[in-house]
Specification:
- Helix content is 30%, strand content 0%.
- It has a domain of 43 residues.
- It is built from 2 helices and no strands.
- α1 runs antiparallel to α2.
Length: 84
């Protein structure tokens, strides 16, 4: 696994099918723009936000709902982002 620290305005390209993770190592809020194919995947983030507003992170119900969203968008969660 290789991590890349991105500065404001930086661009990262992740080819389809490549396992990847996002991690904010700071206490500051992070904003990012995501573009993906096929069209419609952008709703993954809205669905994920809805879950985070209704379930406390870490409880079993939270993860059960997250897994439903991943399945809905034909995506697989490989585990938590490694710390490093």
């Amino acid at each position: 696994m290789e991590w890349h620290d991105l500065s404001p305005g930086a661009l990262a390209v992740v080819p389809r099918g490549t396992p990847h993770a996002l991690w904010n190592r700071t206490k500051q809020a992070v904003r990012f723009l995501n573009s993906g194919n096929p069209a419609g995947f952008e709703r993954f983030f809205a669905d994920s936000e809805t879950i985070s507003r209704h379930f406390r992170y870490g409880i079993p119900d939270f993860f059960a709902e997250v897994m439903k969203v991943y399945k809905k968008y034909d995506t697989e969660m490989l585990g938590p982002a490694p710390r490093g």
